[in-house]
Amino acid sequence: MMDELVFFDTMRQGLWIAFVISLPILVAALVTGVSIGLVQALTSVQEMTLTFVPKLAAIAVVFWMSMHFMTNTLVSFFHDQIIPLIIGG
Description:
By secondary structure, this protein is mainly α. The protein is built from 2 helices and no strands. It is a multi-pass membrane protein.
């Protein structure tokens, strides 16, 4: 039977890993959105759809560049934390 402390510690680690994995994509979307918003404010071009394509492109590029990091982080979490809990070790 799993102890409550082990459960909450595993949940905390899982949430932290989810945060760390999503951080590069969220930062890319934030920086791109603020940059495009600044350009729109400076040029008085207020088109709502103008931010969508650059933001999507930035997210795709950052996702492609950080896939290796994301995969390694998740695999190591499952290998070091989750699988031993499932096995009972």
